[in-house]
Predict the 3D structure of the following.
Amino acid sequence: MKAKKIVSFVLAGIMALSMAACGSGSSGSSSNGGASKTTSGSGKAGKTVGISMPTKSLERWNRDGSYLKKQFEDKGYKVELTYSDNKSAQQNNDIEGLIADKVDILVVAAIDGEALSQVLGQAKEANIPVISYDRLIMNTDSISYYVSFDNYTVGKLQGEYIRDQLDLDNAGDKTYNIEFTGGDPADNNAGFFFNGAMDVLKPYIDKGTLKVPSGQTEFDQCATAQWDTATAMKRFQNILGSYYSGGTQLDAALCSNDSTALGVTQAIESDYAGKNSVIITGQDGDEANLKNIVDGKQSMTVYKAVANEAVVTLDLAVAIMNGEKPDDKLISSSGWSFDCSYDTDSYDNGTGKIPSYLLVPTVVTKDNMDKELVDTGYYTKGSDGYLKAVG
Ligand code: BGC
């Protein structure tokens, strides 16, 4: 069952949300992406929300954490926010701590989607509902709902961008070279991104219009543990050294997100001998990548408005804490100023299909960056021409 609602975009509202979130960053954080915990808020009817984020070392989760915290606190809830330094054992401990603190609901973005069944079993025993945030948590029936973006479409948009830039439908006998960089195999999203892109591009590989000199077209061959920039860079340097050193031209590098795109861009800068500009995709709108887009080093990013993901999570969590059983009607009753669909088919975590609220991603390039990111209030533009995230 799918339901969708579009209401007009309310700039002022988004600005207010964004500005409100600004400066709410969690105190007590370490600067090196380390584990941290912040507790605050007055507590609506004594209710506390436990939020478990993966890491501060990947830019977007800092924005997610601070938007979520601000959203709940503004409604009077107390918030406990943890970051687990991309260490799965640490996230288990952090969630155990939140359960011991008797939070009323858990919002969890998993580091390893397969590694939380046991601790979330404890949450279930303690009657604490769990919202799987952005990344689907696998093999546990303790999850009530999933809030994310349409992850398959993220990859599809990346694939379509490459298809259109290379004009593959009109290539005739011309052939192009492409390489793929995927995400973390422990993250359920990574396969959706990769498959979305591959479903667009594979027909051209099959036809011979697109060639993959490394031969690496399977997700497992292209994956990047922990979405790590240096790991993506090293793998790509190896590919360039092994398959492109003899003057072979690289036309496109499909990268599933911005942290991997950064590594691939660095590898191309240091180890690619060709003079052409390589099409490079990304996802998230991380500041360093937006700078690269402005500077012509990265071609696009798929932007996901995490401020809106936080809004959906807030309204869903409040409904659950009020004893409701939210469904598609949450969308109409909430009056969100952005698109969201309710999907009960697409995400099966191994114990059954998890009802999902899915937001809509947007392609951002140099040409529409100001319109999509600055005019909407998500970023400000500095006098140097580069963007800075609000929140
Ligand atoms: C998120 C992406 C992000 C990646 C690495 C994924 O689960 O959906 O937005 O780029 O994790 O942080």
Remarks:
- The radius of gyration is 21 Å.
- The CA atoms of residues 138 and 349 lie 4 Å apart.
- The mean pLDDT is 91.
